[in-house]
């Protein structure tokens, strides 16, 4: 017992992990794909610190605030790790008195939540956010954000998704129609948000028994929030509904939705959208359109409840056996949760002004914002689950430099190899060699194969030392008969480039990671 | 007083800052340039969490450990923000039982140090690390790392740097020759390391008065550590030195240096290197070659001491006036420090085994490592100080879509604009429009100019609605006479692409950020 205490356990902290090799290649490809899309829409990028002053984050996340990581008080300011990229963005806009900005931000955020590692639900994870701040005409930036959402997912080979969409003003209108008091709206809203995971009966019970609304109120809410379908279908129903027609807030929202319908039809992305009146989203700061993209992997497994109970039973039996104090640190919910939404966002028109006003400025201008956030690890888990990674290489090596020779004075020509390598590097060519003086050819070919190099540049003892020649040979099983071509050592680079171009053309020109993600 | 307490101060935490606009363009260019170089050398990339278990970092940084940020104990594991990328790398290698790996890692690290923001010395900053782990022949990976260091800085337009280089075994040998006890070596070493900032007399005083060595010991140390010059020059002196010749450790180091000299000469990077026996480097874990790159901006200003005293005086006078409690948080040392080294590294052969052994494994294999770390913010500050950023654009917009028209039924053709934009986006073209329904042409041209777009796609009321035509016009003062070209709306994309290619060719084909960094 005391011995194990002295020993270090080599691990990463709970809910975090190292990324390497092919996983990194996929994740980098996700970043690059999304970055290219964000840039297509004229966004700049910003980078804010990983930690913010604690008070910047306070009061922004409702009951999720308990999941915020704080830094230890080591003297000086009290700080917390950022929980999302939206609040730091709003702080940035307010702090710099910007009246408009279009930005993307790809960075890590932190939540002390129950992890489900294989489902991409982690304590340290990336968000890829695109947001438009500024006062514009209704639904024009919003519809562009929807098109970015579609472009982002389809570019990553995900086509079987649905965008659940709703409008906070319509939702709030419904609660008013049902007779919910204004101060109760957010908590009833969060009950309704559970409709994707629980049957209406459970949600109704929460609304009435737990949250004190009458049966009648619940029934009216139920009538509306069970509505979903295409924008066209649900608009038609709402336009004939007397409750909606008489409610100012709901009508404002409906006007937005009708405009949005025109715009997404013009962009031919309407087929992805499901207008779903049960979507509420947890965060307090949304004020208009809200949406989230889901796929088949988003939902928990059918037997989630059983699996969860099983996991809890195992955990408590471990505890009763007085297992190591932090066995609980190993908990993982992967068995009984789904991937969840893979991208989500909405309109938040008051967050920037909230910051400006908190600094004591009177009459701070409202800076309306709308944005979307892609959940990279969740998207990653979907791509990885469906892909064969065999062909992906995590290194870019194109050329392997080797030296063949022997005899008593043979030294492996290390200095000469380095001279050759330097020329390749200076010409932008990815090239490696074995970090050894004397090695036999077999080992060098094996190392070249492992590196994924396509060309060998060989310093043969006689060829190089007596004739000043290098041998350039194509690698790979299909070129096993290729003896290579001799070339003057002083202009070998051009021949290497020619052969690399030939091989790239033979391979179809597309890199393996693009083929994999696109399912080609 | 009480009012100001209620008000939020919108700021980032001490020693951290937001990055945006052109600064981001420069920094991204640094990342991309270094990434390309790292990939040329066959490295994979890894990503480790921002925080590690506290015990992983403990005992690795000597007296700098006090600068580590800890997370608050909120239940569960105790964690700290990473201090560098080297210790997490060694943890990764040990945890995965790797016997070799070549990796690069570009990520933020955290140090609770006195910031000097305009000199790129911050509490949150990026490191760009390249490391080779594995058992190889002497100096082969080391010399490749030196070539990466040279390639990295010259590719970023920095040519006027010097690599100060030394060998821990030679340094330790010198201390043995002088008669320093083994247990005192590291503290004498850190005194010697100050020779780049202080005269020998001050260093000698520290060695004798503060650190208890005799005058004689100090004199012998002084004789050696004042030596510096080309590899050739210093090797010649050491090879004739009887003390060195009789010291086993120093001779081992010298053998390495002689081999290195051959290799760096083969790669023609020897002219950058200054063999400087006073270089010691603070970190405990180095065991062989150590080096750091410096430029003219690295040193503090000549009147640093006066400026520092001035700053301290101002600070204490503020305090005496009972200024706000955390006025101290604003301290910045930019006025009296230099940029410091802009890249540094060395060989650390024992760090991985230290982790393996701490887990209780007996006879863990030694995994020797060598690497280099680029200080991005410091390099950034040099590039920014010498550059004219006027031509740099922080957005990539190529095309601006406009609608011209008027009259009572004019609606701005928003849906049509979105249809046109979607086609551009789908073809990978960066395109924007104004997020407004009806806007006059002047405002649209102004917005296009601000966006940096090169081409306007214009929906003219009659041309578009009656003839189904779009007008494609080049933008910019040199094309003010261009009335544009009418094209069928269904195949306008090709004409846009042709015109963009023409304009790119006219511009020389090089992007502005490359021209700026390279000083073209």
Per the CATH scheme, the topology name of the domain at 399-518 in chain A is Rossmann fold
Give the strand order of the largest sheet of chain A, numbering strands 1, 2, ... along the chain: 1-4-5-11-10-9-6-8-7
* Morphology call of chain A: elongated
Radius of gyration of chain A: 29 Å
Catalytic activity (chains A, B): tRNA(His) + L-histidine + ATP = L-histidyl-tRNA(His) + AMP + diphosphate + H(+)
Keywords (chains A, B): Aminoacyl-tRNA synthetase, ATP-binding, Cytoplasm, Ligase, Nucleotide-binding, Protein biosynthesis
Main location (chains A, B): cytoplasm
InterPro entries (chains A, B): aa-tRNA-synth_II, aa-tRNA-synth_II/BPL/LPL, Anticodon-bd, Anticodon-bd_dom_sf, HisRS-like_core, HisRS/HisZ
List keywords for this structure.
homodimer; alpha+beta; Rossmann fold; 9-stranded mixed sheet; 20 helices; 16% strand; elongated; disordered N terminus; ATP-binding (chains A, B); cytoplasm (chains A, B); aminoacyl-trna synthetase (chains A, B)
Describe the structure.
- Chains A, B: Its EC number is 6.1.1.21.
- Chains A, B: Catalyzes the aminoacylation of histidyl-tRNA in both the cytoplasm and the mitochondrion.
- Chains A, B: It is found in: Cytoplasm.
- The structure is a homodimer of 520-residue chains.
- Chain A is an alpha+beta fold.
- Chain A has a domain at 399-518: Rossmann fold.
- Chain A is 41% helix and 16% strand.
- Chain A is built from 20 helices and 16 strands.
- In chain A, the strands form three sheets. A nine-stranded mixed β-sheet of chain A has the order 1-4-5-11-10-9-6-8-7. In chain A, strands 13-12-14-15-16 form a five-stranded mixed β-sheet, sandwiched between helices.
- In chain A, α16 links the parallel β12 (399-404) and β13.
- At the A-B interface, α2, β1, β2, α4 and β4 of A face α2, β1, β2, α4 and β4 of B.
């Amino acid at each position: 017992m005391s011995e194990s205490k002295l020993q270090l356990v080599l691990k990463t902290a709970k809910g975090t992990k190292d990324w390497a090799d092919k996983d990194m290649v996929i994740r980098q490809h996700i970043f690059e794909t999304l970055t290219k899309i964000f840039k297509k829409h004229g966004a700049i990028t910003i980078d804010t610190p990983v930690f913010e002053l604690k008070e910047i984050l306070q009061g922004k996340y409702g009951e999720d605030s308990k999941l915020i990581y704080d830094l230890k008080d080591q003297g000086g300011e009290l700080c917390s790790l950022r929980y999302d990229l939206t609040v730091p963005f709003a702080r940035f806009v307010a702090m710099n008195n910007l009246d408009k900005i279009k930005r993307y931000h790809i960075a890590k955020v932190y939540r002390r939540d129950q992890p489900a590692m294989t489902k991409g639900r982690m304590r340290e994870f990336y968000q890829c956010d695109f947001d438009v701040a500024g006062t514009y005409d209704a639904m024009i930036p919003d519809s562009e954000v929807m098109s970015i959402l579609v472009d982002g997912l389809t570019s990553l080979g995900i086509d079987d998704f649905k965008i659940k969409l709703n409008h906070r003003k319509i939702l709030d209108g419904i609660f008013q129609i049902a007779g919910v008091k204004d101060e109760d709206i957010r908590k009833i809203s969060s009950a309704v948000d559970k409709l994707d995971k629980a049957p209406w009966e459970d949600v109704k019970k929460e609304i009435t028994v737990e949250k004190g609304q009458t049966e009648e109120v619940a029934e009216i809410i139920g009538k509306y929030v069970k509505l979903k379908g295409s924008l066209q279908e649900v608009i038609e129903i709402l336009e004939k509904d007397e409750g909606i027609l008489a409610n100012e807030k709901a009508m404002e929202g409906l006007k937005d939705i009708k405009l949005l319908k025109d715009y997404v039809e013009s962009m031919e992305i309407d087929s992805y959208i499901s207008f779903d009146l049960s979507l509420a989203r947890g965060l307090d700061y949304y004020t208009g359109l809200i949406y989230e993209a889901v796929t088949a992997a988003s939902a928990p497994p059918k037997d989630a409840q059983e699996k969860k109970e099983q996991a809890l039973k195992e955990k408590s039996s471990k505890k009763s056996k007085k297992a190591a104090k932090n066995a609980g640190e190993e908990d993982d919910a992967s068995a009984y949760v789904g991937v969840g939404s893979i991208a989500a966002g909405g309109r938040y028109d008051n967050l920037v002004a909230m910051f400006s006003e908190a600094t004591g400025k009177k009459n701070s201008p409202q800076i309306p914002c709308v944005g979307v956030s892609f959940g990279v690890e969740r998207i990653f888990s979907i791509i990885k689950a469906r892909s064969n990674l065999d062909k992906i290489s995590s290194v870019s090596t194109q050329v392997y430099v080797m030296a063949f020779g022997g005899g008593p004075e043979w030294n492996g020509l290390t200095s000469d190899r380095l001279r050759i390598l330097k020329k390749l590097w200076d010409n932008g060519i990815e090239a490696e060699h074995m970090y050894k003086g004397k090695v036999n050819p077999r080992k060098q070919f094996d190392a070249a194969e492992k590196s994924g190099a396509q060309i060998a540049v060989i310093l043969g003892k006689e060829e190089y030392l007596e004739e000043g020649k290098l041998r350039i040979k194509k690698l790979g099983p299909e070129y096993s008969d290729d003896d290579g071509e001799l070339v003057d050592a002083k202009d070998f680079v051009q021949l290497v480039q020619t052969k690399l171009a030939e091989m790239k053309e033979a391979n179809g020109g597309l890199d393996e990671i693009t083929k994999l993600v696109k399912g080609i």
